[in-house]
Design brief:
By secondary structure, the chain is mostly beta strands. It is 4% helix and 42% strand. The chain has 1 helix and 11 strands; from the N terminus they run βββββββββββα. It has one helix spanning 164-170, and strands spanning 5-7, 10-16, 29-37, 47-49, 60-64, 76-81, 89-98, 114-119, 122-127, 137-145, 151-160. The strands form 2 sheets. Strands 1-11-10-7-3-4 form a 6-stranded antiparallel beta sheet. A 5-stranded antiparallel beta sheet has the order 5-6-2-8-9, with no helix packed on it. β10 and β11 form a beta hairpin.
């Protein structure tokens, strides 16, 4: 999809990765969404949604979660009901982070990792993180609300070198020029 934008009311993010070898600590990845108010588009998020939380109004939630990658296909999923978000929200950034509890891991250390973003049955984004192999966290998408209240999708594949807690404070920052 590149830098094009597209109107979206509801989206689903799916994540997959292969489990670690039997004699190694598990790979644990998370889909993370951060919401931003219209008066602080690039400030601190109003709230963050991940495996252990959901949005206060139920508009963003995890429907599947894996701590190991075990399962068939996409083992983690998050639904974003953008059209139900309060008018005070103007931006949502979605990313993926690798937990660093068992030593440093990057996307290059994983096998068969991938993310899929859907609008209904239509694929908006599909990526295997290969070009971000040195990163421990990545942003994948940004949704912005225009003045008419319509949400638009923008692909923003951008790598970070941080654990999930730090990533939630960085993921919505203004990109470096």
């Amino acid at each position: 999809m590149g830098s094009e934008s597209r109107k979206v009311a509801k989206a689903e993010v799916r994540l997959k990765w292969d489990p670690s070898p039997w004699n190694r600590p598990p790979h644990h990845l998370d889909i993370i969404a951060a919401t931003y108010s219209s008066d602080a588009l690039y400030g601190q998020p109003v709230y963050v949604v991940h495996f252990d939380s959901r949005s206060p109004d139920g508009t963003i939630n995890m429907s599947r979660h894996s701590q190991t990658g075990q399962g068939l296909g996409y083992v983690e999923a998050m639904t974003l009901e953008l059209d139900r978000l309060a008018p005070s929200f103007a931006r949502v950034v979605v990313g993926v982070a690798i937990h660093q509890n068992n030593g440093p891991k990057t996307f290059g250390d994983l096998t068969n990792a991938g993310v899929l973003l859907l609008d209904g049955y239509e694929e908006l984004l599909k990526d295997d993180f290969a070009h971000l192999s040195g990163s421990t966290a990545v942003t994948i998408a940004e949704f912005t609300r225009d003045t008419s209240g319509t949400w638009e999708f923008h692909q923003i594949l951008r790598g970070f070198d941080s654990d999930p807690a730090v990533f939630t404070t960085e993921m919505g920052s203004t990109p470096d020029p």
